[in-house]
Amino acid sequence: MDYQKIIAAGADTVVEGVRNCTLASIVDSGQCFRWRAVGGNRFFGIVDGRACEVEQQEDMLIFHGIPREEVEGLWLGYFDLERDYDAIKTRLLQDMVMREAVVYAPGMRVLRQPPWETLCSFILSANNNIPRIMGIVERLCALCGEPVQGGYAFPTPEALAALSAEALAPLRAGYRAPYLIDAAQKVAGGALDLDALYTLPLPEARKQLMRVKGIGPKVAECVLLYGFSRIECIPVDVWVKRALTTLYPEGFPADFHAIGGIAQQYLFHYVRCCPAALGAGRENNVE
DNA sequence: CGCCAGGCTTCTA
DNA sequence: TAGAAGCATGGC
Question: Would you say the pTM of this structure is higher than 0.90?
């Protein structure tokens, strides 16, 4: 567990004794697309139709204007604060490449995001860049999501299934628009049972997801990791591929497999923010 | 102008 | 089954 206690402070709720959690790293790590900075250590986001303004101060997370019940019922789980990252990092720090990545962003975490939103977001991520993905997701929410304080909820599968691909033109999602509609129709119509993906064996879960147009192996891996907390899933995009071939020519250490998705998250963020780490003349065993 | 972005679908051999 | 072309869009 990476927090100690939750206390009410007027209209706010404060989570104290938070460890291994740096919001600035997390919301800039390409796993979520709806958070924006509204001050130095303050961020605004909407999850599950709940708007959230959260501020980080030392070892505290201050949820502004949010009751304790909502912090316990939604946000602790979203930030995965019940998980013990010390145990995970102890293992990763044994490896000299992972050590650099972990030291670079020691507050990185893998979020537990709503499956449907995650599925759509990563359909949109294909052959795309992060700032533009964010823009498309925001326009999607504004187009057919329920209004909430400060923005719009992510649209339900039913709301999206009622639209045509042409109606999504304002998103400027390009060829991905029909993929979104296909996903919405399969989920709203019951052809794809998202809840089942929490427990299905991974090969079967991947197969189910890849029945949706626009979901291939990499996107399926992202959905399972970020949307279903299947932390053994390792999405391999162009950055991670470069990192693995350059930094792990002998292959990814086998004892990371159970936590491979989290290792991948440190690595992705590290090489994307420090491309020099992949530069020529770099050794594996840099201290 | 070309190249790239958290890839996928479709076509071809 | 493997490999390459084509794909919307926008930043650089």
Answer: yes
